[in-house]
Amino acid sequence: MKTVSDDLFRLIKTLTKPEKGYFKKYAAKNASGSKQNYILLFDAIDSMHSYDETLLRKKLKNESFIKQLPVYKVYLFNLILKSLSIYGAYENAESKLTEMLLNIRTLEAKHLYREALKILKKAKAIALKHDKMKFMHEILHVERHILLSMPEKNSYEKREAIYLEQKKVLEMIANFYEYSWLCDQMTILVDQQADYRSGSSAEKIEEIISNRLMQDENLPLSYNAKMNFYHTLLQYSGSKGDNEKIFFYLNKEIEIAERNRHFIDDNPQNYVFALINLLLYSSYAKKKTVIKETLVKLKTVRDRLKNKIPRETEIQIFFHASNVEMLIFEKSCDLERGRKKAKEIEKDLAEYGADVPLNLKALMLMNLACFSIIDENYESALRSLNAVLNDSGLSLRSDVIDVARLLQLVIHYELKNYDLLEYLTDSAHKYFRSRKLKNKAEGLLTGFFREITGIDRAMHKTAFDELHFKLKRYADQAKEGNLQVYFDFIAWAKGKAEGKSMVDIIRSEN
User: Fold this and answer.
1) CB-CB contact of 50 with 115 (8 Å)
2) What is the pLDDT of residues 473-496, one digit of tens each?
């Protein structure tokens, strides 16, 4: 049976209010046939929360075009794309350069070379300012063609100058691709797989960081190459749990962006995510002044960019920021604001979940689970955790899955599901053994849960006291990062040993 496509629905749901308004004006002027039919179809789909073609057909059953619905859907999809291609709400360097190149080629085709060169000169300046080397490559190609079409006395010198520019641009493009590939590899290994403790991944990370291009900050030839250079070093520092260097490289990224503010307006994601990461690590390090300053910067840039960037970019920025706020409330045990934020996140995930990147969604669900455990709302914690473990798409984050396996045990212990706990403990033990991880803390925890199910409950406090001692000693020796980043297992064990809540333990140590 043929599956009904929801492509049109997904495209419509990405549109902002100004884009929708512009589309309707565009369709009224440019759609072939009955223009009103496309707007009727557009509005019917836009009113849906999830795509249901049976319901759509019922809504439009009295319309003549319903018999040709698949054809209308395809035409409407392409019509929306055409309207977006000429809509200027998100005018940035690339959109300006695209338009300028079209104008240059139009003038060139009409042999209006001098007029074309005037625009070309401005396009060059924009491309260089915004580090748009792929456009610069195209601009130089057009300039060469114009020069050969209108030879002058000094044509040789001008052509040589273009050639030298082309060589330099190609060098910068190749340099950028080298750094972007190094950065992509490091990000995939550390941020997505987060399995840098295993042999092959650890070796690959060291190989990347030992690359000659990573030995000198003067080797990146452009802004974007330099940002990739520092982000690679940032990810490497994260894999080593080196908080001092994490702060250093985050501040480097922010400093470079703030010295080149036109890049922030043109592509805000890198700058905003650097702020979000600085906020995150500042919360771990309890740098209250940095947290306040970063929150102000984040709010300022978000307000300035509202409705000026694509919806998908806004969603990513919004959810990343919400995720970090949730973490701050968790680490500070601000239960009141944390509960409020958790409800907001759950509501937003229900509405925008399909558009949230899977890595980010996995992190958000994990953080919701961790907060709910601290808040002693174990049923809610289990719902969030099951959403992580039961969605194969979220398993890209192996570090999240590792901790989720352990938190499963924590939650079922708290719920006194001892029979299920015994089964899950055996499953977790086999899982970690098959992964061949070198993290002793995971072994300590799975070993503890295997033992706790077999001893008298009157002895549980003593067992937790021993677990707390072992985890604390191991963390002090190994400076273990990942396990404690997600959930404070040490505070949980100490609370159980002393008969106190996690909130009391964490607050007493802050």
Assistant:
1) no
2) 887 665 544 556 788 899 999 999
Give the angle 44-48-51 at the CA atoms, nearest 5°: 100
Reported as a single tens digit per residue, the pLDDT across 162-183 is 999 999 999 999 999 999 999 9
pLDDT tens by residue, 356-378:
778 788 888 998 999 999 999 99
Rounded to whole angstroms, how far apart are CA atoms 307 and 289?
A: 30
Q: How many CB atoms lie within 10 A of CB 112?
A: 13
Cβ-count burial 6-45 (b if 16+ within 10 Å, e if not): bebbeebbebbeebeebbeebbeeebeeeeebbbbbbebb
Q: Report whether 350 contacts 356 (CB < 8 A).
A: no
- Integer Cα distance of 289 and 298 in angstroms: 14
Q: In this structure, is the dihedral angle defined by the CA atoms of residues 58, 60, 62 and 65, taken in order, positive or negative?
A: negative
User: 39 near 24, Cβ under 8 Å?
Assistant: yes
Instruction: Return the pLDDT at 440.
Output: 72
Structural domain spans, the chain: 7-85, 93-151
Scan for tokens 């900050």, then name that residue: 217
Could you tell me which of 223, 222, 327 has the C-alpha nearest to residue 283? 327
Are 409 and 425 in contact, with CB atoms under 8 Å apart?
A: yes
Q: Are 117 and 162 in contact (CB under 8 A)?
A: no
Give me 406's structure tokens.
Answer: 């352990």
Greatest Cα-to-Cα distance within the chain, rounded to the nearest angstrom: 99
Helix axes 398-414, 358-374, angle to 10 degrees: 20
pTM for the full predicted model: 0.67
Query: Is the Cβ–Cβ distance between 475 and 484 less than 8 Å?
Result: yes
Residues 6+ apart with CB under 8 A from 29: none
Burial of 244 (C-beta count, 10 Å sphere; 0-12/13-18/19+): exposed
Long-range contacts of 12-20 (CB under 8 A, 24+ apart): 12/42, 12/45, 12/46, 12/80, 13/46, 13/355, 14/310, 14/311, 14/312, 14/355, 15/80, 15/311, 16/89, 16/307, 16/311, 18/89, 18/307, 19/83, 19/84, 19/87, 19/89, 20/46
Q: Quote the CA–CA distance of 198 and 381 in Å, as a whole number.
A: 29
Burial class, 300, CB count within 10 angstroms (exposed 0-12 / middle 13-18 / buried 19+): exposed
Separation of alpha carbons 361 and 400, rounded Å: 11
What residue type is 115 in one-letter code? Answer: E
Token digits of residue 194:
């987060």
